[in-house]
Amino acid sequence: MRFAMSNEDQNLTINIEWVPALFKELSKLIVGQKDMLEAILMGVLTEGHVLIEGLPGLAKTLSISTFSKTLSLAFQRIQFTPDLLPSDIIGTMIFNPNTGEFNVKKGPVFSNIILADEINRASAKVQSALLEAMAEKQVSIGSNTYKLDKPFLVLATQNPIEQEGTFELPEAQLDRFLFKVKVNYPNKEEELQILEKINDFATAEVKSILTQDKLLEARQQVSKIHIDENLKKYIIDLIMSTRNLKEYGLKRLEHLVKIGVSPRATLGIATAAKAQAFLKGRNYVNLDDIKTVAYLVLRHRLILTYEAESENINTDNIITEILANINI
Description:
By secondary structure, the chain is an alpha/beta fold. It folds into 2 domains: about 10-215, Rossmann fold (3-Layer(aba) Sandwich), CATH 3.40.50.300; about 225-325, Magnesium chelatase subunit I, C-Terminal domain (Helicase, Ruva Protein, domain 3, Orthogonal Bundle), CATH 1.10.8.80. It has 15 helices and 11 strands. It has a 5-stranded parallel sheet. Strands 3-4 form a two-stranded antiparallel sheet. Strands 6-7 form a two-stranded antiparallel ribbon.
């Protein structure tokens, strides 16, 4: 199928010469995990927050801190615990006895990349404080509101197995994440590489590949990437099918899906597909871009029934069925 493009879209030049250099630099400390690294990069390019789910020891924290170094971005890690307070994240007012006034002490949320480590270990009150920052790109301290640094990106991790002492993220907060990435174990060859490079990890130094100005330029290129009208309609059909399964010939899934996805998912797929096209060096989105990012964007937004859980069916299974049945 041919897609129409305007002259302006056709003339858009995509510069991704820095991308291979970035991944080469990351490989000094990180073995494998290509899907996670690409998802984080797409999050950076679109300023979309990313939820990373995986077992301990899979380089989640290391990947995020290393990314910030290669992109010349300020980085803060917040370890979420049950006794964490909102003021520990956003900051607080401190009394100055010399002046008799209260001064603002800004919290770690005032940074470019925030690693919210084990986000589901903090209380709902703390999670809601982070939600304001994610949604509004600003926080309230005392009676004043403060804008956050640009770019601002939350990369949160959670352990899929440990449930004791955790607070499940509410749907409203999950919806604020552009992606949910599932991190798997390395394969046999990657595990061997880890062993062989064990001495290199301690001495490896990661250098900056991209300045903030160049990153802004890349983000502007991503935003201008073309999506054909037929592909926009395809995205709408994907989203609408999660809400009206019967109408899209998916009645067999009705007992498995409790609630479909919100309009944020529509915007999320379009935005993510542009970033995916950018990483492939194209100035236009194709069908494969949309199908690739659909799992990342939809898997944490679909709400399944208890029946689906009892049948060991997850959201990825549902997305696979939808993609197989919705045609352009």
